[in-house]
Specification:
There is one protein chain. The protein is mainly α and 129 residues long. The radius of gyration is 21 Å and the shape is elongated. It starts with 21 loop residues before the first helix and ends with a helix.
Length: 129
């Protein structure tokens, strides 16, 4: 009834030898930054609600924001948001046909998005600290 197929396909189980192109890295990071932004939205809304609840709540929120660890988390959230926005604009430009659909143009736009996001990350660090 069933036929056994013996395919001799190569299997690469050594994950350290896999090299993703820069466009794949940009796409994966765009998705990761979207998840980070989604989770961070809940944290930021909780903090906003706490700060608006009462004068004591505002003081408590200000005390929470004074910690170095919390400032680092806020910087990471802003960096993820900045990269997600830059990556989204990159995808929109490609979808609307403002960029060529070639591998060279994809690599250039991915590298440009990395550079712009790095600059925005530095500016976010200046804003937070």
């Amino acid at each position: 009834m069933g036929k056994t197929v013996n395919k001799q396909r190569p299997v690469n189980l050594d994950l350290s030898t896999i090299r993703f192109p820069v466009t794949a890295i940009a796409s994966i990071l765009h998705r990761v930054s979207g998840v980070i932004t989604f989770v961070a939205l809940g944290i930021l809304l909780w903090l906003l609600g706490l700060s608006l609840s009462s004068p004591e709540g505002f003081n408590q929120a200000a005390a929470i924001m004074g910690s170095f660890f919390v400032k680092f988390i806020l910087w990471a959230i802003l960096t993820a948001l900045a990269y997600h926005i830059v990556g989204g604009i990159r995808h929109l430009l490609a979808d609307f046909g403002f960029m060529e659909e070639t591998m060279v143009a994809g690599k250039r736009s991915a590298m440009a998005s990395f550079i712009i996001a790095a600059i925005l990350s530095i500016l976010a660090g200046v804003l937070v600290w």
